[in-house]
């Protein structure tokens, strides 16, 4: 016997919890895409309005899987429409964003901000799909399966995408730092972690 259909009150309670749980991630991703708080807030609102309209169907199709990738995919598509309809580019380039998490001391703050800006400047040079994958992985903490669902790719393709994104980021950072040819990997072993720190700070 199939389970009974949830009542509207039950769906509303579930959706309210979904909203509270994932509001920050949706807003952070929207901000990465459009580069300013005002439009990020608008995209976040549109994401949850659209999600609410289709929540019952998405809930059933998810079959118990987390719904965060579904929400991020909605935001991703809305941001793409935002750029296409307005022929815009992000108003705040990725590398110009101010890290919002303060370290311990003034010198450490200056050094970490310089490192973060360097990483973000290189992330901004990546193709959009690689940049998005890195943002989802390091800023939002999504695993390969979640990223695959958010981007509409297979897990295998997503793993390859992330690998290529990290390798390209390593090369860009090595070139920026003037690493000798053949030592790019050695010079940038910690760059994936640096990217994670920089992206996490930017999205805070």
In short:
By secondary structure, the chain is mainly α.
Keywords:
204 residues; mainly alpha; Arc Repressor Mutant, subunit A; 73% helix; elongated
What about the largest sheet?
Answer: none
Whole-number count of domains: 2
Count of DSSP-assigned helices: 10
- Rg on CA atoms, Å: 19 Å
Please name the CATH architecture of the largest domain: Orthogonal Bundle
Which CATH C-level class of the largest domain is it? Mainly Alpha
- The total of beta strands comes to 0
As a percent range, the share of helical residues equals over 70%
Average predicted local confidence, pLDDT: 81
Q: Judging from the principal axes of the Cα atoms, what is the shape?
A: elongated
What is the fourth-level CATH superfamily of the largest domain? Winged helix-like DNA-binding domain superfamily/Winged helix DNA-binding domain
What is the H-and-E element order?
A: HHHHHHHHHH
CATH fold group of the largest domain: Arc Repressor Mutant, subunit A
Describe the structure.
- With 204 residues, this protein is mostly helical.
- The chain has two domains: 8-86, Rna Polymerase Sigma Factor, Chain: A; 94-202, Winged helix-like DNA-binding domain superfamily/Winged helix DNA-binding domain (Arc Repressor Mutant, subunit A), CATH 1.10.10.
- Helix content is 73%, strand content 0%.
- The chain has ten helices and no strands.
- It has helices at 8-34, 37-53, 55-62, 68-86, 106-123, 128-139, 144-151, 155-177, 184-187, 191-202.
- Helix 1 (8-34) packs antiparallel against helix 2 (37-53) and helix 5 crosses helix 8 (155-177).
- The longest helix has 27 residues, at 8-34.
- The chain starts with 7 loop residues before the first helix and ends with a helix.
- Residues 97-106 have low confidence and may be disordered.
């Amino acid at each position: 016997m199939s389970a009974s259909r949830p009542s509207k009150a039950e769906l509303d309670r579930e959706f309210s919890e979904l909203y509270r749980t994932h509001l920050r991630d949706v807003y952070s991703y929207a901000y990465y895409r459009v580069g300013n708080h005002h439009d990020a807030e608008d995209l976040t609102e549109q994401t949850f309005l659209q999600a609410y309209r289709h929540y019952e169907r998405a809930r059933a199709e998810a079959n118990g899987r987390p719904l965060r990738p579904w929400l991020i995919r909605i935001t991703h598509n809305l941001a793409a429409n935002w750029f296409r309809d307005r022929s815009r580019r992000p108003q705040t380039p990725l590398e110009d964003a101010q890290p919002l998490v303060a370290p311990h001391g003034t010198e450490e703050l200056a050094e970490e901000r310089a490192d973060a800006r360097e990483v973000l400047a290189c992330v901004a040079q990546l193709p959009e799909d690689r940049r998005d994958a890195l943002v989802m992985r390091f800023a939002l903490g999504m695993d390969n399966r979640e990223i695959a669902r958010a981007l509409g790719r297979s897990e295998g393709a997503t793993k390859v995408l992330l690998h290529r994104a990290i390798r390209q980021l390593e090369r860009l950072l090595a070139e920026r730092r003037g690493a000798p040819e053949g030592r790019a990997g050695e010079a940038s072993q910690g760059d994936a972690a640096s990217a994670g720190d920089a992206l996490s700070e930017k999205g805070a």
